[in-house]
């Protein structure tokens, strides 16, 4: 297993700049792994996308409440590739590492600001998987780049182009 994996997990609610980012990642040799609506959006642009359930071997459940909360995702994000024991555990469990995670959270504040919002609708905008992906990526920042803001997509692609 390589110490650097060109593999990106993308799961966003805000699709601004996403086509350009994903196209740039693919052009740089990255495999794109994505969930739900993000996978559909990227597939509709003509990009090859591996769906999260193909990686996890488990479908999205509970009306989409559980998508990325799986060891095949979080193990791939949290693995310290500088440690032989982590590389061995990834190999043992058939987990491939991620080097890039692109995520932004459900628009909870916008949702609850609506005057006619129902509690049930507001509850569904409480993001669980997104913050978990952000925190896992931040914990392993030495090995995983985390993008949460579409304004960072272009500078990130510039860094990749410069070999960073």
Shape: globular
Question: Tell me about the biggest sheet?
Answer: 5 strands, parallel
Q: Tally of extended strands?
A: 5
CATH topology: Rossmann fold
Tally of separate helices: 9
Indicate the proportion of strand residues. 5-15%
Q: If strands are numbered along the chain, what order do they take across the biggest sheet?
A: 3-2-1-4-5
Contiguous uncertain segments of 5+ residues? none
- Supply the CATH architecture: 3-Layer(aba) Sandwich
* CA radius of gyration: 16 Å
SSE succession: EHEHEHHHEHHHEH
Structural class based on helices, strands and sheet pairing: alpha/beta
Number of individual domains: 1
Q: What is the CATH domain class?
A: Alpha Beta
Residue share in helix: 40-55%
State the fourth-level CATH superfamily: Methylglyoxal synthase-like domain
Q: How do you describe this structure in short?
A:
It is built from nine helices and five strands; from the N terminus they run βαβαβαααβαααβα. It is of the alpha/beta class and 164 residues long.
Task: Furnish the topology, listing elements before pairings.
Blueprint: E1 7-11, H1 18-27, E2 31-34, H2 36-44, E3 50-51, H3 52-56, H4 71-78, H5 84-93, E4 100-103, H6 108-112, H7 119-123, H8 129-139, E5 145-147, H9 153-161
Parallel strand pairs: 1-2, 1-4, 2-3, 4-5
Detailed description of the structure:
This protein is of the alpha/beta class. It has 9 helices and 5 strands. It has helices at 18-27, 36-44, 52-56, 71-78, 84-93, 108-112, 119-123, 129-139, 153-161; strands at 7-11, 31-34, 50-51, 100-103, 145-147. Helix 2 (36-44) links the parallel strand 2 (31-34) and strand 3 (50-51). The longest helix has 11 residues, at 129-139. The two termini are 20 Å apart.
């Amino acid at each position: 297993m390589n110490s650097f994996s060109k593999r990106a997990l993308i799961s966003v609610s805000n699709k601004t700049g996403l086509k350009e980012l994903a196209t740039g990642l693919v052009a740089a040799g990255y495999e794109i792994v994505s969930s739900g609506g993000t996978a559909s959006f990227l597939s509709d642009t003509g990009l090859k996308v591996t769906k999260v359930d193909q990686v996890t071997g488990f479908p999205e459940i509970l009306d989409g409440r559980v998508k990325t909360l799986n060891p095949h995702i979080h193990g791939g994000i949290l693995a310290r590739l500088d440690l032989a024991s982590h590389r061995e555990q990834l190999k043992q469990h058939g987990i491939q590492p991620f080097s890039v995670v692109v995520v932004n959270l459900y628009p909870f504040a916008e949702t609850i600001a609506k005057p006619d919002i129902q509690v049930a609708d507001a509850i569904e905008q409480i993001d669980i998987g997104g913050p978990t992906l952000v925190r896992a990526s931040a914990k392993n920042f030495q090995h995983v780049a985390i993008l949460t803001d579409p304004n960072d997509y272009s500078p990130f692609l510039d860094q990749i182009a410069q070999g960073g």
